[in-house]
Here is the input.
Amino acid sequence: MAAAAERLRGIAHRTPVLTSRTIDERTGARVFFKCENFQRMGAFKFRGAYNALARMPAEDRRRGVLTYSSGNHAQALALAGRLLGAPVTVVMPSDAPAIKVAATRGYGGEVVLYDRASGPTREEIGTRLASERGLLLVPPFDHPDVIAGQGTTATELIEETGALHLLLVPCGGGGLLSGCALAARALSPKCRVIGVEPVLADDATRSFRTRTLHTVRNPDTIADGVRTPSLGKITFPLVLDNVDDMVTVSEEAIVAATLELWNRMKIVVEPTGALPAAAHRRQVPTLEAFEGLRQVESKRRRSK
Here is the structure.
């Protein structure tokens, strides 16, 4: 994680941490918002994409890389590729937000569209294209260098705020969640790390509860950044070992939290980025409640 942070120094933005007196008063806690909406290309994904490409030998980058993404990782890898001289091909669903498809192309990425409602999956298409074209695959979350890059989000947050009691993190494929959990374990060991998913895309929550990998196909959630089918081979065990709990939020809660961030804090946030705020806004969990959850989970794991 430290090496990834050094690699990103001066390249990725050190994004601001904002607070709201109103939210603090409502929750009875000091709440910090790490604003990765101010990151290059507008999301934390730039951290992992750049770190992964920067770690590659130059000759491998020149051959080109390929990924699959509904939007943010697509833009992130395309931008990182432009900065590091790597041609980038991205497999994107045909129903991806048009603005994200346009941005990916604007950063220089070649976009290959597919229909995610039928036919081969994006992973199958990506693997085939990478083999046919001799490209290296940089998946959106299930990659050690991507995870390390995403984890620098929490590293920066804790460096600025000091030790935390609770860290709420959006979860799709688990790259950000597992990276941030590892950072929190190192820098704020007593911090409770909680992953947040939409109710309609709760595969990671079910996987966490049962310790068996679950999948979901094309969930109908407004939070398009977490419509991934499942946790990955790398992120699943990392989540099991380093995350204290998972919670889910309704579509209504996501919309309400997004609007509150827009109206109260005057920041434009994607619904996916508002997932932690939705969990905090709806549940207003106390530290005592999460301590109880932690003890229950600890007993359950010891019994396995």
Summary: The radius of gyration is 18 Å. Residues 144-161 form the longest helix (18 residues).
